[in-house]
Amino acid sequence: MVPGRVYPRGEVGGVMDGMFSIAAFILLIGLIVLVILMQQFQQNRQYAEIQARLREIRDAELREQRANALRAERLAVLDPINILEATVQSRGKGVLSDDELVQVESARARVKAITEELMSNKQWLGPPFDLEWHEVLERLPLIRNAFLAANFAPPSAELAAPGGAAPTPPA
User: Regarding predicted confidence, which is higher, 135 or 26?
Assistant: First the structure.
């Protein structure tokens, strides 16, 4: 390059212009790739957030379905007990047979298990929707009295002493 001389386009100035054009093109492509990568990163992050929200919704829906199934099972367990209450009332005596006591005991155990599961899943609604066993018994007075009398009655003489002999009072 000589000072003061005008170069035609194909010589020194043209080479610089060509290199500038190539560098500008490479820089433009790099910027476009960078923008595309940033958008892809944001899109992937939003997709992960959407997936997490959908998972939460599905989990909540499954917990609700499970709670409804447990409530339906509790109703199925308590229906025979309600029928038993009506049967005891129609018989006129407040005494339960051994089979009926077993039925009430198994219903008690299942209702308690369902109550525990509902409480542990944080799906417990409380009265009047969800009742604990003692609240169920409050609504069935004949069953409650007969069940408590059978479970907390003093042992009879023939069960207390071996061989059927009457027990001796303590001295």
Answer: 26
The model scores a pTM over 0.70: no
Q: Which of these, 30, 23, 115, 19, lies nearest to 70 by C-alpha position?
A: 115
Question: What is the DSSP annotation of the chain?
Answer: --TTPPPPTTSHHHHHHHHHHHHHHHHHHHHHHHHHHHHHHHHHHHHHHHHHHHHHHHHHHHHHHHHHHHHHHHHHHHHHHHHHHHHHHHH------HHHHHHHHHHHHHHHHHHHHHHHTT----TTTS--HHHHHHT-HHHHHHHHHHHHSPPPHHHHSGGGPPPPPP-
Which one of 54-58, 122-126, 159-163 scores highest in mean pLDDT? Answer: 54-58
Q: What is the Rg, in whole angstroms, of the alpha carbon atoms belonging to the chain?
A: 41
Helix (H, G, I), strand (E, B) or coil at 36: helix
Cis bond before residue 170 (omega within 30° of 0) = no
Intra-chain end-to-end CA distance of the chain, in Å: 133
Per-residue pLDDT tens digits for 46-87: 999 999 999 999 998 998 999 889 999 999 999 998 888 888
